[in-house]
């Protein structure tokens, strides 16, 4: 089924904004009124100009590009760096449509920051997507501001569902969510890196090591999705009593993986709170 979305403006399309933009285009969604995206440089703007149904604006050529883009869209996605958000909001505030929904893609920027610049009546939703949205396998957390309506949330949910799964949470949980699904792809890539190094250390070529490591992760997650089983159950099926896998899993468990992941996500959460405080 083709999803229908209202007009979209992406103000800044860096790694996260670009991931969502590419994912929406790849989904084949029908965007009534089209998509406009702004970036500062010619290089970034040119890289997005070939996307179907997208008008890409370089702000060096069009200083009013952000205001014009915001004025044209029902859903305005703010994808600039966190430190740049307040200035951007003040710039676009007079241009926003009365029915505009402003969606934050900026890590650590609170709904209160948006309300300060746009007013308490602004319809704002804070999002926390992840980069697998590029291939439509993302996870996005949504936290609605006080003035956002149920219809607003439904529209924004439909937008992000074109690029993956969506979880609605109170804003108090959005930073915690970011430490799992937001940062999570980096953890997976790190594990694949280390798994590849282990294979190289056992005499395999770099190419064969990468193939084994990457396809094992891809295959295991595909099996998990297809089976509907709990990860612990699938792990038990691979782990024969007194076998090689049991010995390897014991080493990993003895290394305190539970504590490592808890401390890693705690560190990410602490940093998210520092960003929210302007540190």
What does this structure look like?
The protein starts with a strand and ends with a helix. The protein is elongated. The protein folds into 2 domains: 4-169, Rossmann fold, CATH 3.40.50; 184-275, ProC C-terminal domain-like fold (Orthogonal Bundle). β4 (35-39), α2 (42-48) and β5 (54-58) form a beta-alpha-beta unit. The longest helix has 22 residues, at 206-227. The model has no long low-confidence stretch (mean pLDDT 94). The protein is 52% helix and 16% strand. It has 12 helices and 10 strands.
Key terms for this structure?
279 residues, alpha/beta, Rossmann fold, ProC C-terminal domain-like fold, 2 domains, 8-stranded mixed β-sheet, two-stranded parallel sheet
Across the major sheet, the strand order is 5-4-2-6-7-8-9-10
**Could you give a short account of the major beta sheet?**
8 strands, mixed
Number of strands: 10
**CATH-defined topology of the largest domain:** Rossmann fold
Poorly predicted parts: none
Provide the helix percentage. 40-55%
CATH structural architecture of the largest domain: 3-Layer(aba) Sandwich
How many distinct domains?
Answer: 2
Q: What is the number of helical segments per DSSP (H or I, 4+ residues)? A: 12
Question: Quick one: CATH superfamily of the largest domain?
Answer: NAD(P)-binding Rossmann-like Domain
Order of helices and strands: EEHEEHEHEHEHEEHEHHHHHH
Distance between the termini: 45 Å
Radius of gyration: 21 Å
Using the alpha-carbon principal axes, give the shape.
Answer: elongated
- CATH hierarchy, class of the largest domain: Alpha Beta
Mean pLDDT: 94
> What is the structural class?
alpha/beta
Tell me the β content.
15-25%
Domain Pyrroline-5-carboxylate reductase catalytic N-terminal: 8-108
GO molecular function, one term: pyrroline-5-carboxylate reductase activity
Main location: cytoplasm
Keywords: Amino-acid biosynthesis, Cytoplasm, NADP, Oxidoreductase, Proline biosynthesis
């Amino acid at each position: 089924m083709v999803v229908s979305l209202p007009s979209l403006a992406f103000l800044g399309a860096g790694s996260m904004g670009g991931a969502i933009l590419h994912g929406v285009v790849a989904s084949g969604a029908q965007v009534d009124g089209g998509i406009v995206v702004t970036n500062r440089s010619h290089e970034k703007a040119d890289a997005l100009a070939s996307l179907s149904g997208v008008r890409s604006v370089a702000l060096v050529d069009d200083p009013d590009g952000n205001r014009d883009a915001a004025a044209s869209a029902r859903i305005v996605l703010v994808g600039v760096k966190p430190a740049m958000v307040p200035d951007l909001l003040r710039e676009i505030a007079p241009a926003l449509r009365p029915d505009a929904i402003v969606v934050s893609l900026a890590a650590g920027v609170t709904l209160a920051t948006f309300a300060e610049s746009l007013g308490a009546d602004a319809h704002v939703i804070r999002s926390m997507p992840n980069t697998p949205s590029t291939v439509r396998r993302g996870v996005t957390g949504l936290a609605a501001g006080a003035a956002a309506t149920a219809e607003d949330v439904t529209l924004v949910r439909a937008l992000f569902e074109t690029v993956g799964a969506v979880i609605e949470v109170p804003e108090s949980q959005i930073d915690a969510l970011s430490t799992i699904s937001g940062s999570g792809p980096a953890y997976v890539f790190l594990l694949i890196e280390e798994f590849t190094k282990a294979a190289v250390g056992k005499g395999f070529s770099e190419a064969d090591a990468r193939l084994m490591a990457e396809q094992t992760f891809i295959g295991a997650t595909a099996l998990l999705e297809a089976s509907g089983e709990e990860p612990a159950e699938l792990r038990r099926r691979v782990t024969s009593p007194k076998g090689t896998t049991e010995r390897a899993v014991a080493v990993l468990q003895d290394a305190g993986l539970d504590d490592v992941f808890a401390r890693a996500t705690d560190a990410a959460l602490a940093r998210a709170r520092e960003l929210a405080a302007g540190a």
